[in-house]
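User: Thanks for the earlier help. One more: NodB homology domain-containing protein. Can you show the sequence and predicted structure together?

Assistant: Of course, both are below.
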Amino acid sequence: MYKKLFHLVLFILISISLRAQAAVILQYHHVSETLPAVTSVSASTFTEHLSYLKEHNFNVIPLDELITALQQKHTLPDKTVAITFDDGYNNNYEQAAPILEKFGYPYTIFVNPKLIDEGKGYVMGWDKLQELAKKGALIANHSGQHDYLHHMLANESDAQWQARIKQDILHSQQRIKTEIGHDYKYLAYPYGEFNNKLQALVTELGFIGIGQHSGAVNKDSNFSRLPRFPASGFYSKLDTLITKLNSRAFNITALTYEDSVTAQNPPKLTIEFTMGDFHKSQFACYVSSVGQANLTWINKNTVEVTSPKALNKGRSRFNCTAPAINNAGSYFWFSQPWVIE
């Protein structure tokens, strides 16, 4: 009897451990049928996404709850999701917010305070953001005016770059705090681009860095480069989004590469895992516009990932997945973003 009880307790503990690996952050831009399709989702498709979450009992929580739980190593319920929007477009107020309110789902909007202060007509003003915040929306930092934060100006020293970007991030944060009252130290990188130096600066300032590369999150995630699944444009198709919503995060103990923004081409990535609920033989990586990546297992826990040929200039990715053994239909998912210079 005691042996049976021991195995039952062990099963419960293992189940709780596995549940903690299933958090996903979704990223949207426009909810519109008239703006660029690549960054847009129609109101009907957006409603379809939220209906799926509701019908399949997803745990949709505010972004701050999700991040705090991960930082404190707490267990999250299975199928936990946070919803985010970048840029604070007017259609978020006109189209997205009423749909989200109907479902009772919390969400976060990352805004560019300098563009708001300049009165740019395509983004919400502080009055609309204040109204949404009073209804429960979280308002967070997307930099002052959506610049490429890792870019250095002509003849700019590293110290000058750091001072300029630090001022941008902190001034933007202060404007949000003054106008909204929120002081969530989350920075969504414009264009999803970041390099080692930007990650280090964001961490030094006490911020969480959030990208646009795909993948689930867990307690072992790097909090200077949390992934989100884009859910607009090509990525808005529900059949493929369902796989992402049910994805899990690899337990990665070390990630080694030259830099996310690099002249090394093809770039090289080394991943060290705490091996768990997947078979090495089913682990695979794919390279944007190239196909399957080359894998070299250095030891039982460490794999080197390379592209079989040079990547195109600009943004690219390595997407790595493996089916979960104990969660049928669920995939572990990790994405490494690149900007090839």
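User: Great, one quick takeaway?

Assistant: The chain is about 30% helix and 25% strand.
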